[in-house]
Structure to design on (844 residues):
């Protein structure tokens, strides 16, 4: 009788173990710090919520004093921080397990190359494609990043401790030590205020952004480039980083020439000291002796030149290094890096000089049987320098088009700083000037002229944000391409041009479906214009963290872009809380970078991924987008009672209490209507808080439902879902958003809406559209329930919701108290905003 195979291992078992352990330790910490009564209250609320009785949760919460509600919010919020960490660590764990089992992970470079090879793509075609691949990820400081650096550091420690728990040889005493260390970190988090009492300065945001380079990106990005080049030897650098932090002046009076200079200087200091540390460590360990191995004459010549530059430091180098030229050279390089960071004589004048020194060492090693040494830490450092230079990430400048006239002096001063930075750091540090609110070619030509006056040939990037502007984007770039003034800039920049498309404001303008379609069409038109005028076009995608602002899985989003002249070249913003989710842990940082790069490589081959729009797809999307936009604008923009309903139904006005960004939530405009001047970020953030997530789906059901009314239409749409990545991405983003939403919870916020704002009428329209959109999605994907095809994600959301719901109940109670004049409610209310963000892993 054959032996039955062993049961399949439970892939989620380690995750459940970690969540249970962290939850139990949190319970101990709460009892230690706050007493049994708070723990009992938390357990009562938790059990009631798990039983599905939200009304009873509201009753329990309403009976609690405001201060106890605040402490209860902290308990649930910290639970989500820990649960999120466990999930992130589990993703890393599963990726390691895939490697052990030699399985190809989805969205990996291995998967991409496997797909291309299966499609018959040859090695020569791969090498040719590699010349097109250019991915730039741009970190921004939009006010949705609610996680403090102090908290991020503690989370790193917890992740490392969870990793140690995975050791199969861990002893019981070792396990107890780890659990004690976890309890220490959780206690630290409990005693750390997760919300800020003061709005961060731009310089704080600069430090925050650089933290991710310091903690993960400096290490994992060069490793990814190394893996990529193992498959395509000699490939050009496929990946770069940018930043808006310190350079984004659009609507932010706190950003300007001084913060631009500070961003460049802090980044330079950070990376120079990182290189110095690496070079010093290599000097300590590279004891290759001339008594055993010869060296190139070029190395000896460079040592002599350095000794002349650094005569004051030569005596500090030990005499034993006289017979060890690599060690001596590296010590001299170390001192040159320190001199560079201090802006003192003897330092490197340019990053190219540092690169040349590394190449001298590399060439000498390879010429004398030292290939293995050259391929180790030295090669990793060379890739790091190739990626990050002396500037870390290129800082983009962004201003609004109107600033060219209303704040012309400030713009000119900014351009002078750009000129200084280019002189000091090179053009790679800052050469992009983005114009928000571009409605025609004139602002771009004006900015080009202002840059020329400052002695600059900048990449002036029009940003198209509204539905109307996206529809005119091709015409505007056509006018620029035929303008003598702009054509001179194109020629000076080797016919390279960037154009930016904005997901956030276009979705706020016309709804999610219409915005997605107009951005797709704009890209096609822009690619056609670029091809006609021999322009090497890069599309810059201004995506937010949430679906309502163009967010969603990066790999799928890249593959959803149209094929055409710009394929393989793209630039993406990384905004808000997505930065810490993606790049806070090194293992996840590698995974997310790899997903973006593998998709960018695949996008060079539109025939393989099917990114081109079928004719019937254009017809379906054009009709659906038109209907969707009408439904969205009728409800939001053409509804005189919408603004009072929105301001009372969501905590949009209270978001200002959450000191999470240096930029105001509304653009400066004394007489603008509230909704018009409200930024897209708080627009989305506020709807996320009350769990309706309206910007990510409203109007989509109205747009698609009529097409599905016939059997032919339903078959057509289902085929589009199977075969067209763009449409599949839209449907899957809708499905995820609808699954995360909860109109049952949102209904509780109706009690905050005055009768004059017609709460029941507005909510009825929301509920009807939600039901219609849900029905449309389920019919397209042929499922009975949302996320039936993704049971792990479905289960995760269902398990999380009972823990988020109590925070919503407390938010409603605290909003009522705060709006009623209770000053003590403000701080706990802020905590509910951060807690719901952590619970949904999404803000704006």
């Amino acid at each position: 009788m054959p032996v039955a195979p062993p049961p399949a291992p439970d892939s989620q078992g380690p995750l459940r173990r970690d969540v249970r352990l962290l939850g139990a330790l949190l319970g101990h910490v709460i009892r230690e710090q706050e007493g049994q009564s708070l723990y009992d209250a938390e357990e009562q609320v938790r059990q009631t919520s798990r039983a599905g009785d939200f009304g009873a949760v509201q009753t329990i919460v309403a009976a609690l004093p405001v201060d106890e509600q605040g402490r209860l919010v902290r308990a649930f919020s910290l639970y989500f921080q820990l649960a999120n960490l466990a999930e992130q660590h589990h993703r890393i764990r599963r990726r390691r397990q895939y490697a052990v089992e030699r399985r190809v992970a989805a969205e990996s470079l291995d998967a991409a190359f496997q797909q291309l090879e299966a499609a018959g793509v040859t090695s020569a075609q791969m090498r040719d494609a590699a010349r097109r691949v250019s991915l730039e990820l741009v970190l921004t400081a939009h006010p949705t990043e609610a996680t403090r650096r102090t908290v991020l550091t503690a989370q790193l420690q917890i992740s490392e401790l969870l990793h140690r728990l995975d050791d199969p040889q861990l002893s019981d005493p070792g396990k107890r030590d780890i659990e004690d260390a976890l309890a220490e970190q959780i206690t630290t988090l409990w005693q750390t205020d997760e919300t800020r009492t003061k709005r961060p300065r731009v310089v704080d945001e600069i430090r925050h952004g650089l933290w991710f380079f310091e903690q993960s990106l400096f290490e994992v990005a060069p490793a990814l480039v190394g893996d990529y080049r193992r498959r395509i030897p000699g490939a050009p650098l496929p990946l770069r980083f940018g930043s808006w932090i310190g350079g984004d002046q659009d609507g932010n009076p706190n950003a300007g020439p001084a913060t631009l200079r500070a961003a460049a200087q802090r980044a330079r200091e950070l990376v120079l000291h990182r290189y110095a540390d690496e070079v010093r460590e290599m000097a300590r360990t590279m004891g290759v002796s001339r008594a055993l191995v010869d060296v190139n004459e070029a190395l000896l010549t460079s040592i002599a030149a350095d000794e002349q530059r650094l005569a004051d430091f030569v005596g500090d180098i030990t005499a034993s290094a006289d017979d060890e030229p690599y060690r001596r050279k590296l010590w001299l390089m170390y001192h040159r890096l320190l001199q560079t960071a201090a802006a003192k004589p003897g330092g490197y004048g340019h990053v190219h000089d540092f690169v040349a020194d590394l190449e001298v060492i590399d060439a000498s090693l390879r010429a004398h049987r030292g290939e293995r040494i050259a391929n180790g830490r030295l090669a990793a450092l060379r890739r790091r320098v190739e990626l990050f230079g002396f500037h870390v990430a290129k800082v983009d400048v962004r201003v609004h088009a109107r600033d060219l006239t209303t704040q012309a002096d400030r713009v000119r001063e900014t351009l002078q700083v750009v000129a200084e930075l280019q002189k000091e750091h090179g053009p790679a540090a800052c050469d992009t000037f983005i114009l928000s609110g571009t409605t025609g070619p004139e602002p771009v030509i004006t900015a080009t002229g202002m840059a020329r006056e400052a002695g600059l040939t900048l990449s002036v990037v029009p940003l198209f944000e509204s539905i109307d502007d996206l529809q005119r984007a091709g015409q505007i770039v056509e006018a620029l391409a035929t303008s003598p003034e702009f054509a001179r800039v194109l020629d000076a920049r080797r016919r390279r041009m960037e154009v930016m498309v904005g997901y956030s404001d276009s979705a706020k303008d016309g709804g999610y479906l219409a915005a997605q379609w107009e951005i797709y069409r704009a890209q096609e038109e822009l690619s056609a214009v670029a091809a006609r005028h021999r322009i090497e076009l890069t599309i810059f995608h201004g995506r937010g963290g949430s679906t309502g602002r163009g967010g969603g899985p990066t790999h799928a989003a890249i593959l959803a872009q149209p094929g055409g002249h710009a394929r393989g070249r793209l630039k993406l913003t990384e905004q808000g809380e997505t930065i810490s989710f993606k790049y806070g842990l090194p293992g996840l940082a590698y995974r997310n970078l790899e997903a973006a790069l593998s998709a960018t490589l695949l996008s060079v081959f539109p025939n393989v991924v099917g990114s081109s729009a079928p004719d019937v797809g254009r017809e379906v999307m054009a009709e659906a987008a038109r209907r969707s936009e009408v439904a969205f604008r009728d409800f939001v923009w053409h509804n005189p009672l919408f603004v009072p309903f929105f301001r009372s139904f969501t905590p949009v006005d209270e978001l200002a209490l959450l000191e999470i960004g240096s930029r105001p939530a509304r653009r400066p405009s004394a007489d603008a209507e509230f909704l018009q001047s409200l930024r897209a970020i708080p627009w989305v953030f506020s709807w996320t808080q009350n769990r309706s997530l309206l910007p990510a789906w409203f109007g989509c059901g109205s747009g698609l439902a009529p097409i599905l009314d016939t059997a032919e239409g339903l078959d057509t749409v289902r085929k589009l879902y199977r075969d067209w990545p763009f449409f599949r991405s839209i449907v899957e983003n809708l499905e995820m958003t609808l699954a995360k939403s909860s109109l049952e919870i949102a209904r509780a916020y109706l009690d905050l809406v005055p009768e004059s704002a017609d709460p029941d009428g507005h909510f009825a329209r929301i509920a009807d559209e939600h039901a219609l959109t849900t029905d449309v999605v389920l019919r397209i994907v042929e499922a009975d329930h949302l996320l039936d095809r993704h049971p792990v994600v479905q289960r995760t959301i269902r398990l999380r919701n009972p823990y988020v719901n109590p925070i919503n109940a407390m938010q409603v109670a605290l909003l009522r108290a705060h709006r009623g004049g209770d000053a003590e409610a403000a701080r706990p209310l802020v905590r509910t905003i951060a807690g719901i963000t952590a619970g949904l892993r999404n803000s704006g």
